[in-house]
Amino acid sequence: MNKIKIFLIALSGVFIVSCESNTYSEISKQTGNPTYVANIEHIIEHNCLSCHYGANQFPNLETYEGVKNACTNVNLVCRIESESCGERMPQGGKLPQPDIDLIKLWVANGFIKE
Amino acid sequence: MNVKLFLSLVFGLSVIGHASAQDDLLKELDTVKSKKKQVEIATFKGLQICNMQSTRLTSKGEWYVLISHRFGDLTEGLDNFFGLDDAYTKLGGIYGVTNWLSIGASRQTNNKIYELTTKYRFKNQETDGFPVTIVGYNTMDINSNLSTDIYPNLEFNNRLAYTTQLLISRKFSEAISLEVAPIYIHKNLYDQTTEREDQLIVGLGGRYKFTKRLSLNLEYAPRINAPENTVYHDLLSVGLDIDTGGHIFQLVFSNCQTMNDVYVFSNATGKWNGGSLYFGFNLYRVF
Q: Domain B63-286 in CATH: superfamily?
């Protein structure tokens, strides 16, 4: 009987803490004018820099110039958006759609730094 | 003379009496044995089949250290040295509170996820008795990579994701064991373009034992209500258990690189026909 009790406690625990879900777009920054410093740098830092630093993994995404270069001369946008240019980045899973949209908007607006 | 005869008579009787008492004891042993059904052991050698959990639990008071690696995309070849350049690591521990309950904690590279687990056995498979082993398994993920810099409205609640699993296995013969596992996943934060808040999965797994120390494992976990525009694939893995005596070494080929159950069952990025594949291993050491 003890086992059933524990199972029920675990199950009800799950339902209690999990009752409220959000989508990424609900908790994201909404802006029509994303900049590198305010938006893009944070996305890159948390999703790309564990591999794309120094000479560890091409392209280097540690700086504004590096990210801009990866978007214009390397296929950064294509790699995060689809699997048509190679394995989707970042490895381990797709970036949330609002983050991809923000990067695309930043590219379309001409790589605003600050 | 009479005394001698008397003594030998007493001795003889006592020997016979002793022997028959022994018979009775043996008989008793037989009846005890037939009353209590024998539990089937070693349905699976490892705590995992490949990525999914098996119905095996740790024993009471046992500490397990878990070390898992999944390397990068195997299909890129020498570009990333068959994936060895882009490894993910999972480190964790599991403790057997009782023989039927164990708790665990681990951390993995991807999204810096901490995973807390409980595993508890309801029922054991018995020889000529109960037909299957039934085990419950819960995991809770804490995603510590999410940041308010990107998501200003982020709350702690959003970092959590859960799986609830019912693992049902049967050892069909010395060599073959199979498992089926209804799995429910709930995410407190999800991307509505590619994921669901609640996801149902049917996990299927099995092992075939070649030799005393070697077995082949297979697992497949189709999602029941996968979103139409999903970019993820159903989990399919094949693995090899090597029993080295002190620990179980599991080699795994899978279309999933991440190692937390939520991602394993709902966010596998690879594909067996023409996509990415990942090689890795699980290592369990008991203390």
A: monomeric porin ompg (2.40.160.40)
Using the beta-carbon criterion (under 8 Å), do A20 and B258 form an inter-chain contact?
Answer: no
Range with the poorest average pLDDT among A1-5, A17-21, B214-218, B255-259: A1-5
Position with higher pLDDT, B18 vs B176: B176
Is the bond preceding residue A59 a cis peptide, omega within 30 degrees?
A: yes
CA distance A74 to B46: 44
The residue with tokens 């959003």 is B158
Supply the DSSP symbol for B159: G
Residue B259 has pLDDT above 80, yes or no: yes
Give A50's contacts in chain B (Cβ within 8 Å). Answer: 109
Alpha-carbon separation of residue B32 from B24, B26, B28, B130, B138 (angstroms): 12, 10, 6, 18, 36
Q: Comparing B225 with A112, which gets the higher pLDDT? A: A112
Q: In chain B, at which residue ranges do the beta strands (DSSP E only) sit? A: 63-73, 88-96, 101-108, 113-123, 133-143, 160-171, 176-187, 189-190, 198-211, 214-221, 235-243, 247-254, 278-286
Tokens of B64: 């397990």
Cis ω for the linkage preceding B222 (within 30 of 0): no
Rounded distance between C-alpha atoms, residue B119 and residue B126, angstroms: 20
Residues of A in contact with B199 (CB under 8 A): none
Tell me whether residues A93 and B188 touch, CB distance under 8 A: no
